Every structure is written in structure tokens, then in C-alpha cells.
Zinc chelation protein SecC (Sulfobacillus acidophilus), 349 residues
Amino acid sequence: MSVDSLTQQNQQSFARVWGLRGLDADALKPEERHLLRGMQAHRALYPLWDRLNHLDAGAPVIGSMNPIAHTIMHAILEAQIEDADPSEVNAALEDLMQAGFSRNEALHVLGSMLALELGEVVSSNESYNDARYRGRIALIRQQLKNPEDVESRLRKMGRNERCLCGSGKKFKKCCLDHLPVDLKRSTWAFVLNSDFLYAVPSFMAQGGEDELFVLLQSLSAVVQTLEQMGDEEGAWHALEDMLELGKDDEAAVEDVCQDIVDFALNHYDFAERALAILDQSHPYGLESNDAVQLTWDLDRADLLARAGRVEESAAIYQQALERWQNGNSDVREILMNRWDLWKSDWQPQ
Ligand SMILES: [Zn+2]
Ligand SMILES: [Zn+2]
């Protein structure tokens, strides 16, 4: 079993379960409930889940994260929590949250141990070692209470001694490379086959997932992923989602509009829709200096040209040339560069 096949097998059930999210939790089977809860763990991934039926180019990867594999970890943990099996998981979740971790951060700590366990099953064809998994989670709890004690016990371990997690294996073949867990580190790598396929993108993990700026940055990565996978409608859908989430924050609107313009300048089919958004949102520069104003005007002109409205586009350039002919040199330089580009694209030779 490889990570890719794991992901592909699951893509269809993800799409099906995502369609159930309007239902009451008790109308769902336990495995559907767990998966749905996992899929809802990161708001930034919603536009990706909306597009699962349109993705056929293999597994999506966001930054270095495989969101499907990542979510499988969430779902397995939700099942373990609900069944209280192993019971160490619930106890550790509680301890971590009491120590100030958000629920998601705590799940990522536990998930890094789960991924380690599954990684050993996948890469070494070992059978699942329940004692090892429970032992490692118990060590996280001890580490929370007394980090120095756990660290010094690990330091004193001989490489050939039986590992302190209780797996029955030698330390060097078990926890030597994996413990102690760095509880201060906020990027929880879910390691499998020593690839960081399951890493949480650092911007998602640095706490603050609830902050608008962090959320928009994560969504922007989702836009790029959908775009790279050839799902332009999906990328656009994610951009609209960003705009909706950011609509009450002027700085966010400006950032998102910039992403929208950049996208539409590369995908002409979206130029009209981007123009409509610019006309509604007026994102024209909070700290309005001349260069910012000019750049928005010229972006708008370039969108018009890409929408086939070349004369309207030329008129904006003409106005700018008249207005800024005596402007400062920075502004004139921007204008002349963009004008040269415009002419080479749109002026018949
Ligand atoms: Zn997560
Ligand atoms: Zn061990």
C-alpha cells in the first residue's frame, strides 16, 4: 500500500461524505461522522472538498501536505476518541488542551504519533503495534508533566536496550529518532516513509487558524493547488470563498482582489468576472500612494484587454499617460514598462 493508493481509494468516499454534511450527526454512520469531522477540521480545505468530483489528476498536495492523507489521520483519531480506544488518546487530548493547545493542535501532536505508527506498518510491513502507539502517547503525557525527566531518561537509554515505549523492540529500532516530541514546535509533521507528506503547512499550524489572515493565506494555497491541477473553476470558487470570508476587512479585500486579478490575468475566461468583482469591491489601495493607484488602474485595463475590450483598455492607458507625464520617476517607470508590454500584446504591428 502506498500513500498515493491510500489517497485515491479514499477520494470517492470523501466526496460522498462531504455531501452528507447538512445531516444530523446521529443520521450518520460512525465512520461517516468521523470522516466528516476530520474534513471539517480545517476551514481552508472546504473549497477543495467541494471540488473532489472534479479532480482526476491524482492526489492534491498543498505545499508539502497531502490533505486527504492528513484528514484520514484526523478521522482515525476521531474514531479513537469516540470509542475511547486506546484510552490514552482521550487522556492525552485532555492534557494537551489543558496545557493550552487548541483541539486541532492537540490532534496534530497525537496524529504525528499515529502517522509514525502507520508509517512503520506501511514501510516495514510490520503489524500494527498497539503497545508502541499507547506507549508513545503515554510518553507525551509524561513529557507534558515533566519534560526534563523524560528527556533525561531518553538520554540515558542504551541503543540496544528495550525501548521505553513498551513496544518490545530495541531503542535504536523504535523511538530513538522520534522522541522526545518537540512540544514547542508548532509544525506537526505527520511522517510516513520519512516523507513529510502529511506535514501541516506551517501557516496553518502556527496557531491562529482562527485568524482571518492565516485562513486567507491557507486558502490562497488551496487556490494554487486547484489551479495546478487544472481545475480553474475550482480555483475561482476558492477565490470567491476568500472574498466572502474577508468582505468586512478592507485590507483582506484588497489582498484577495489582488489574487483575483493575478488569477484572471493568467486565465482570460475569468477576466469579465474579475472586472465585476473589482467594480463591486473597490479595493483601490488603503495607503493610497500614486504607484498603488496606478497599478490598480493598469491591472483593470489589462483585464479589459483580456476580456476583448481592447479599446476601453487603451483609453485607460491613454488617460494614465496624460495624467502621469509629469509625475515622479518611479510612477513613470511603472507606466512605461506596462505600456510597452501592453503594446506588444495588443497593438497590431
Ligand atoms: Zn489537521
Ligand atoms: Zn519505542
